[in-house]
Amino acid sequence: MTYLDTLADLIRSCLPPDAVPPADSDDLFRIYAVLLRAKGEQVTDEDVHDAWSAWMQSVDSTHKALVPFHDLDPETRAFDTPYTQAIRAAFRRAANQ
Fold this sequence. Notes:
By secondary structure, the protein is mainly alpha-helical. The chain has helices at residues 3-13, 26-39, 45-59, 74-77, 81-95. It has 5 helices and no strands.
């Protein structure tokens, strides 16, 4: 297990119970771990969406949400928020260890 996997697991542990990550999303959470290291608490919903888009391109390149964040409807944008909050919470936990 690498340091990115450790951070990815930490991010997963910070998700609220009602957030259900996509199946086979280990690579996605590694990208989220990179966001944690690069942006920390400054990570935004748009950053999370961009990371998800990069991952989704290899999973389903026809997904309807593969558009810039500002082109998404509010309901779709809201899916990114729990992940943004989890990355921020994981950053705080990691900083206190």
